[in-house]
Structures are given as C-alpha cells and as structure tokens.
Amino acid sequence: KTTGRLTITGVTKPVRFDVKLIPSPQGVRTVGETSVDMTQFKVTPPDLWNGLLRVGKDVRIRFEAVLPPSQ
Asked: Could you give the percent of the chain with pLDDT greater than 90?
C-alpha cells in the first residue's frame, strides 16, 4: 500500500492505493487501484432518465505506469 493525495474538481483528499511493483525489461511496472467516494470531491453521481439509471457514489481508480531504470 502507498498513500498520496488526489485532487478532483479542486478538492484534494488523502488516498491509499494498493500497488504492485513488477520487474520488467523496461524498468519497474507499477499497477495500482483504489476506490473513492465521488461525493467527498463535490461530484454528484449521475442520474439519467428521471432516475431509471443511477450510478453509485463510489468510483474505482486504476493506474499502470512504467518506471524506467536509472541511468
């Protein structure tokens, strides 16, 4: 796990990510994810067709990046 700060719509909150570090020929591949409550970032969950389709307030965020080897 790692911690950081996430800013959405100008609101910054601390977050924790589950992160995996995977060695690769290109460097170290990082893969992580977390879930956030979008209402904590002042975002209203979408509501379509007069409430027939509603989206929950929790959003899953996933990321993947490659950290190249140091030179």
From this structure: 61
Label residue 36 by pLDDT band (50, 70, 90). very high
Q: Is 19 exposed, middle or buried (0-12, 13-18, 19+ CB in 10 A)?
A: middle
Q: How far apart are CA 46 and CA 63, in angstroms?
A: 23
Q: Provide CB contacts within 8 A for 25, sequence distance 6+.
A: none
Handedness of CA 6, 13, 4, 46 (dihedral sign): negative
Give the burial class of 66: count Cβ atoms within 10 A of its Cβ; 0-12 exposed, 13-18 middle, 19 or more buried: exposed
User: What is the model's pTM?
Assistant: 0.69
Residue bearing tokens 């994810």: 33
Stated length of the chain: 71
